[in-house]
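Note to self: keep these together.
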Amino acid sequence: MDASDTGLRARLVDVGVELVALEGAQALTLREIARRAGVSHGAPRRYFPTHLELLSAIARRGFAELAAQVAAATGDGTAPPREQLTALGRCYLRFALDHRGMYELMFRHDLLESGHLGLRDTSLPLFDGLVELVGRARPDTDAGIVAGALWANLHGIAQLWGWGSLQLATGAGDFTPLLNSVLDAHLGAGS
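Structure:
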């Protein structure tokens, strides 16, 4: 690919990132991305032979952004694991709520399962970081299993909070008490 090809490829992904932020994952059609990028509706196929590959490239940007935010939130790794897990959880939930369309796209099973454009290579390091922190906080457990359960709880909070269900059910005004309860359940109170 020459520079103009690389530029158009990046522009298509940029347009997709903007579109998902404005209108959600359902708006990500090849035709709409091409229209907003100012190219023919067939042009994206030159760089992304399938719709799945373009969606994967857009989701990859989301995982990169989430990873950068998690790294900033957890700092240099010297804080106690529980503090880092609290920061990671808060960051994950904030990202999910602030970037709902991107979050939905990032966790589409068909994209993760397909392996297009190394999406798993972008997403798995986030989980590996969670496993490492859980292992430090709870060396007595299977850190992968506990991290999986913790992540499932965070994902559930993100979904239910985004829908407004948890606010109705619990009367909570923010998700922090729920996050703390989940961390207590998986790591032990005050660990």
